[in-house]
Amino acid sequence: MNHVLSIAIILVSALVFSSCAVAPDSPPPRAGHVLSEWHDDGGPGEVSVKINLAHQKAYVHRGGRPIGWCYVATGKEGRSTPSGSYRIIEKIVDKHSNKYGWIEDAAGNVVNGDATPSSRVREGEKYMPAPMPYWQRLTSYGIGMHIGNIPKPGEPASHGCIRMPKEFAPLLYQITKVGTPVKITRESIEPAPAGLVETPPPPAPYPAAQPL
User: Fold this and answer.
1) Nearest Cα to Cα of residue 97 among 128, 76, 68
2) For residues 110 and 125, what is the distance between their CA atoms, to the nearest angstrom?
3) Starting from the edge strand earliest in sequence, which strands make up the sheet with 126-131, in order?
4) Sheet hosting strand 90-92, strand order edge to edge
């Protein structure tokens, strides 16, 4: 199987299976939401990422310039994503969770959508670890960014990880590196997303004075 086909399979899997132990039959995002925008100019400057927990959005900058944003789904109540300043410490394209998943029967029906490796598995059933494509680890205890289901944009939904839309996570993965800074905050003020703020044109010059 070549690399391109492998990536395609990962992306298709991300459509079917959500990550962080949410069952594959989770509801789709609400209609009408734009989940992300990308405007990378490819210019100079270091890439940085800011996750706003209050608004459930990620903002990406290059050299201080906004180049993209997306909705995210961070940790729900009881499993909240910790705020703080981090750096990416691991990058894996095809990653599966070693903590969460689901259990399905022989016909592929989900019988336990919030399982762990130690959950009871009856005869004929099997445990399925949650896929976490385009994984970018931030902590030693399992917090990272990856493709995942965002059932209700603007609301937390994960077990602590930072889920990103399927079209956004690969783009971010391509421009980050081990060491890229990621800041997670709870700021109530939302910055203007990249691409949505236009610089107004300069005022038209006054006409030259005409002789009387």
Assistant:
1) 128
2) 9
3) 110-115, 96-104, 126-131
4) 90-92, 135-137, 144-147, 162-164
Q: Is residue 181 part of a domain?
A: yes
Name the pTM for this structure: 0.73
pLDDT tens digit string along 131-186?
899 999 999 999 999 999 999 999 999 989 999 999 999 999 999 999 999 999 99
pLDDT, tens digit, 9 for 90 and up, residues 78-107: 999 999 999 999 999 999 888 887 788 889
> Which of 6, 24, 13 is closest to 115 using CA atoms?
24
Q: Where in the sequence is the domain holding 27, given as residue range(s)?
A: 3-185
Does residue 205 form part of some domain? no
163: domain CATH number is: 2.40.440.10
Tell whether 206 is covered by a domain.
Answer: no
